[in-house]
Amino acid sequence: MRRYTLTGKESPRLALDTFEAAQPGKGMMSVDIKAASLNYRDLIVSRQFSAVVPLSDGAGVVAALGEGVEGFALGDRVVIGFMPGWVEGEFSPAKKATSLGGPGMDGVLTERLIVSATGVAHIPDSMTFEEAATLPCAGVTAWSALFERRPSCLGKQCCFSARVAFRSSLCSSRRWPARASS
């Protein structure tokens, strides 16, 4: 398999290398990456680290399933969450460590990636891999804008309009009210 890694130099910033694809462990899956998107965070990471497989947002096809993975089959089209280890609860350093494309966690600029099955979602048939690959960071950006930097929706009814909603509600265009809490 092939992947790109950061060199830690200005030029060339990336180096193409090969690796042996491992089998996914319990609760994990292998995804053959079909599309990736580039975000500002990826540029920051590229300037600060070396020996890291970059890029945090990607979509692909399930290539292998580890023990205990349910709800997915080989060949399913999936999008990978920006931080696959944070699917519920309060933010923590352990959850932050699952951020793709940073130190300690390979990103999606690779032919195959092993990730937690809880951190992926099915892609609707109406969506391309390229479209799906742009969603994870966009979702994180929207969430951060609403609840982190300026918590304007805390305790209020807010209306979100989106073509898709990431995770299990990944679906066609709809509007829904959401109540934010602190």
Provide structural commentary:
This protein is an alpha+beta fold and 182 residues long. It has one domain: Quinone Oxidoreductase, Chain A, domain 1 (Alpha-Beta Complex). Helices cover 18% and strands 29% of the residues. The protein is built from 4 helices and 9 strands; from the N terminus they run βββαββαββααββ. The strands form 3 sheets. It has a 5-stranded antiparallel beta sheet. A hairpin with a 7-residue loop joins strand 1 and strand 2. The radius of gyration is 17 Å and the shape is globular. The C terminus is likely disordered.
Low-confidence stretches: 161-182
CATH superfamily: Medium-chain alcohol dehydrogenases, catalytic domain
Instruction: Measure the end-to-end span.
Output: 44 Å
Strand content: 25-35%
Task: Report the C-alpha radius of gyration, rounded.
Answer: 17 Å
Number of helical segments with 4 or more residues = 4
Strands, count: 9
> Which sequence of SSEs, written as H and E, runs from N to C?
EEEHEEHEEHHEE
**Content-based structural category:** alpha+beta
CATH topology: Quinone Oxidoreductase, Chain A, domain 1
> Which CATH first-tier class would you pick?
Alpha Beta
Mean pLDDT across residues: 83
CATH architecture classification: Alpha-Beta Complex
Binned, the helix content reads: 10-25%
Biggest beta sheet attributes: 5 strands, antiparallel
Number of domains: 1
